[in-house]
Amino acid sequence: MDSKVKIKAEGVNFFYARSQALKDINLDIYENQVTAIIGPSGCGKSTFIRLLNRMNELLPHTNITGRISLDGRDIFEDSVDAVQIRKRVGMVFQKPNPFPKSIFENISYGIKVNGIKDKTFIEEKVEASLKKAALWQEVRDRLSDSALKLSGGQQQRLCIARCLAVESEVILFDEPCASLDPISTAKIEELITELKKDYTIVIVTHNMQQAARVSDYTAFFLMGELIEFGRTQDIFTAPKDKRTEDYITGRFG
Amino acid sequence: MKEKIYKGIFAVLAFASLAFLMGIVIVLFKEALPIFQKVKIGEFIFGRYWYPTYSPAEFGILPLIMASVWVTFGAVLVCVPLGVGSALYLHELAGDKQRAIIKPLIEILASIPSVVYGFFGMVILTPFLQDLFHLPTGLCALNASLVLGLMAVPTVCSLADDALNYVPKSFREASFAVGANRWQTLTQVIIPAAGSGISTAIILGMSRAIGETMTVLMVSGGAAVIPHTFLEPVRPMTAAIAAEMGEAPMGGLHYHALFAIALILFLITFVFNIVAEMISRRFRIKLGLSG
Ligand SMILES: Nc1ncnc2c1ncn2[C@@H]1O[C@H](COP(=O)(O)OP(=O)(O)O)[C@@H](O)[C@H]1O
Ligand SMILES: [Mg+2]
C-alpha cells in the first residue's frame, strides 16, 4: 500500500542559460519513505532535487516549466515564499558545508533565523538535533569549538543536525557520502533509515549499493530524463527498461 | 643550463629589489638618527611645537602626528561606508550588467593621479566648505579627509569585494537551505565570514590615506598646530616632509628631523601592512582556504 504523496513533479522542464537540464519529469515522492535518485554524472539529479527546495532560483538565467507541489500546493505559485519552502524542505549537500562558526552556532543559526529567541528552547533543540544526528556523544564537551575542526563525517552529521533543528518535513540529500570514508558512510545510512520515521527523504547517490540499502523507491535519471521509477526492490531485481538494467548492472555510467 | 641562467637572472632581480628596500631603510635610519642626539625621542614625538626654522628651533611633531591622525580618521569615516557599501552592493544586489559597469568605474577612481584629486579639493571643495561653515579658509582637515577618503574608496571597495567573493558559495547555500532570507544570510553568514577580509581592506585603505602626500599638501591648509576640530588647517606628516624638504639645508637638524618623520611614517605603514597581512591570513584559515 503506497503512502501519501508528499511531493509531486508534473511535466517539469528545467533550463540553464543554454541547455535544457531536465525534460518532462513526472515523479511522486512518498511521505515517510526514502526515495533514491540514481543515474550517471550530469544526468540532472542535483538539478532536480535543487528544484524541490527552490534552490536553483539563486542561479541567474534559469527557467522552469511544469509544476511541483508540496502537500498538493504548487511551490512556484506567486503567493508562495521560497524562504518558507526551504524551511519545510531541508537540504544536506554533497560536500559538508558547516558555517565557520562554533558547533553550537551552526545548529542554532537555523532556529534563530526562523524567529525563535528563547534561549533554553534553543539549547534543548540543539542538543536534541545533535542526538538525532548521532553526533552528541562526540561533541557534547566542545560545543563552542569551531565546526571546521570536526572530521568530514562529523561535519556532515552536523549539517544533518542543522537541518533537523529547523523541523523541516522533507530532507534532500545530494550525494551526502561522496566525500566520506566507509565508516562515516555507514553511520549516515543508518541515520537516514532512522530519520525516515519522521521525515520524507530524497537521496541522490552514485552508489548503487547505497540506493539498494537505504531506499524504498528508486528513480533512474539519464540525460535529463526520468527513465524509470518504482519500488527499489523492483528496480534492482526486475528493471523494465533496458537502460536501467544496463546502468545498475554496471554496463555503463 | 639555460634554466640555470634564467634562475640566476630572476634571483638577482629579486635580491636587487630587496637590496633597494634595505638601502632605503638604512638611509632612512642613518639620516634620521642625528636629530635624536639633539632632541630626545620623547620630546620629538610628543613635543607640541614644530618651529624648525626658528632660533632656537623646536622639533616637536605632535601637531603633525595629530594632523595625520585626524585626517586619516576622517578619511576612514568617508571611505569605509562608501567602499564597503559599494562592495556589498556589487556583491549582493547588482546584476551582472550593473557590475560590469560599476566595477571598472570604481577602479578608474584609483587610476586618477593624486594631484587631480588635490585640484578637485582646492577648486571645488575649498570654496564650498568655506561658505558652508563660514571659515577663514576651506583648506582644512575636513577637506583633506574628504578627498583622501574618496581616493581610498577604490582600494577599500575592491579589497572588500574580493573578501566577499572569497566566502565560499556553499555557506550561502547552507544558509538559504535552513530558511534564512537574504538579509539574514548577508549579515549573519557572509559579512562575519568576510569580516577579517573586510578589516584588511579598511587597514590598507587607511595605510593609503596616511601615506598620501600630494593631495594633503594641496588641501590640508598647512598649519602646524594641534587641531581641535575638523575645520582647522592642519599639516600632516607627509605634507610637512614634502613642503619643507626643499628649504631645509642638507645635513642640518631640520633636514634630519624630516627624515625622522619619514621614518616614523614608514614604521606606521609598515605596522599597518603587517597587521593587515596577519588578519588576512587568519581569515583564509578561518574559511578553510589555504594558509
Ligand atoms: N549552474 C549551472 N549552470 C549551467 N549548467 C549547469 C549548472 N549546473 C549543472 N549544469 C548542467 O546541467 C546538467 C545536469 O547537472 P547536474 O544536475 O549537476 O547533474 P548530476 O547531479 O546528475 O551530476 C549537466 O549537463 C550540467 O553540466
Ligand atoms: Mg550532482
Q: Please, how many helices of chain B?
A: 12
Q: Structurally, how many domains make up the residues of chain A?
A: 1
**How many strands, which pairing sense, and closed or not: the largest β-sheet of chain B?**
2 strands, antiparallel
Largest contact between protein chains? A-B, 28 and 23 residues
Descriptive report:
- The complex is a heterodimer of chains A (253) and B (291).
- By secondary structure, chain A is of the alpha/beta class.
- Chain A has one domain: Rossmann fold (3-Layer(aba) Sandwich).
- In chain A, 36% of the residues lie in helices and 25% in strands.
- In chain A, the strands form two sheets. Chain A has a six-stranded mixed beta sheet, sandwiched between helices. A four-stranded antiparallel beta sheet of chain A has the order 2-1-4-5, covered by helices on one side.
- Chain A starts with a strand and ends in a 5-residue tail after the last helix.
- The mean pLDDT of chain A is 93.
- With 291 residues, chain B is mainly α.
- Chain B has a single domain, classed as MetI-like fold (Orthogonal Bundle), CATH 1.10.3720.10.
- Chain B is built from twelve helices and two strands; from the N terminus they run αααββααααααααα.
- In chain B, strands 1-2 form a two-stranded antiparallel ribbon.
- In chain B, helix 5 (96-111) crosses helix 7 (141-166).
- Chain B is globular and about 75 Å long.
- The A-B interface holds A 53, 55, 58, 60, 83-84, 86-87, 90-91, 93, 95, 97-101, 109-110, 113-114, 146, 148, 159, 162-163, 165-166 and B 95-96, 168, 170-181, 184, 188-189, 192-193, 286-288.
- The structure holds adenosine-5'-diphosphate and magnesium ion.
